Amino acid sequence: IAPCSLYYSGNEYNMRYYLADGIYPKWSTIFQTIHELRGSKKQYFATQQEACRKDVERAFGVLQSRFAIVKEPVRYWNREVIHDIMTTCIILLNMIIEDERDLDAPIDVARE
Fold first, then answer.
1. Pfam families under this entry (predicted)?
2. 2-15 as b/e, with b when 16 or more CB fall inside 10 Å?
3. Nearest Cα to 87, choosing from 65, 61, 69?
4. What percent of the chain has a predicted confidence (pLDDT) above 90?
5. Which neighbouring-strand residues pair with 31?
């Protein structure tokens, strides 16, 4: 996993952080959208952050609707197992989508 750092309010954070909405606690690893920002760059950042959070939320919703294992807590699993499970679910979902897409293809009944 690549190292990361975040500079926020004059402080450097060297740990990973998670995009979240207001229902989560205010921990140093949880980065919530900051409302009532002044300045176009800060407003743009908040808008993009919120869009990314919503995309991730939708993606997890789709995975959770197809794979029960994604709904379960992962507190006691190691990182490699979690990575393998998520990668497998994403690949399987892509295969399912590709397979279902082929079902809508027109059938050529005029064979010679």
1. Plant_tran
2. eeeeeeeeeeeeee
3. 69
4. 21
5. 19
